[in-house]
Amino acid sequence: MILRPKSSPRHHATPLGAASTAPMAPVPAWLRRAIPDTQSLMGKDIEEVAIVAGAAICALDTVVRRQERWAGAWRQRLALSAAAATAKQAGRVEDESALRDAVLLTRPGDDVGPAGLLLLAWRRLAARPAEELLTKRNLAAVLAEFGYAPDDEGMSDLTDDLRRLAASDGTVGMMTGAIAAAERHGFGRTLGVWVADALLAQRMGWVHAVPLLGADAALGTSARPRRSVASSVATSIGTNPERAKSLLAAQARAALRAIDLSAELERRADRLLGVAPKLRAKAADAVVNKLLCDDAIVASEKISGMSDRGLRRLFDRLVELGAVRELSGRATFRIYGL
């Protein structure tokens, strides 16, 4: 049965129909050329890669601080990409469409399956306030979504390490330390990049985290390591500078992908907001807001003042106007988004 997806927090909104007037943050051509791929990384010094990564994060910071109405959909689309990469690295077959179906076509409270839980973990990173992401309660939920058995001692040790890292100087050491801490306590690299994204958001003062590192295949994933052989949080960057360089390059690539996606979604959001005044349905405003706040919504979304038939007709109209896309490719159980 198709039921409504889990909702995301609402964001500060401009009046319905008002398109964004803020200029897009440009990505200089030199920065695009300078961001290394896995092949060119070997010939670069860590200082050079750090400068490039810092410039990319600065450009991303400009986008984040605009707090656009479509930022919720943007972060959730990035979360979907991270979940798909995580699933592939774990040897699963689900792609983005299958992951989306697992969550959106499941009754609230029902089991979404292991793949759906991966998506919920990354959606949690994108939706919850950044300041709440690394609490013990939230981390316990994330660990369960990533498939780990409850481990109160390991989680407590991890949160202690993350607290020290958050208070430390140096963003590079903080990020590499976060991944090393997750591995050292037996939780693997996937959780490590999740907490690294959370720490970056807190360090930057962002209201919400932006899923970045999870979608980078170069970082890969690791099986749960033995605690006795994992590296020390305090010395991770000093003993393994190549790992720090790889992380910085991945972060720069991820920031560029996020910026490019923001430009694409801004154009689509502007189109949606441009046609919004033409919509005659009573609850059209609520539908537009949902489309701006989330990756996608199902055609049977329960919206006050809107019948199922009325909602389907509204979506048909929006597709006809080029304001939204049907994302499933199916004739039934359809899903719509920017």
TrEMBL record:
Matching Pfam families: DUF1403
Record region (Disordered): 1-21
InterPro entries found in the cross-reference section: DUF1403
Name used for this protein in its record: Uncharacterized protein DUF1403
Annotated organism of origin: Rhizobium loti (Mesorhizobium loti)
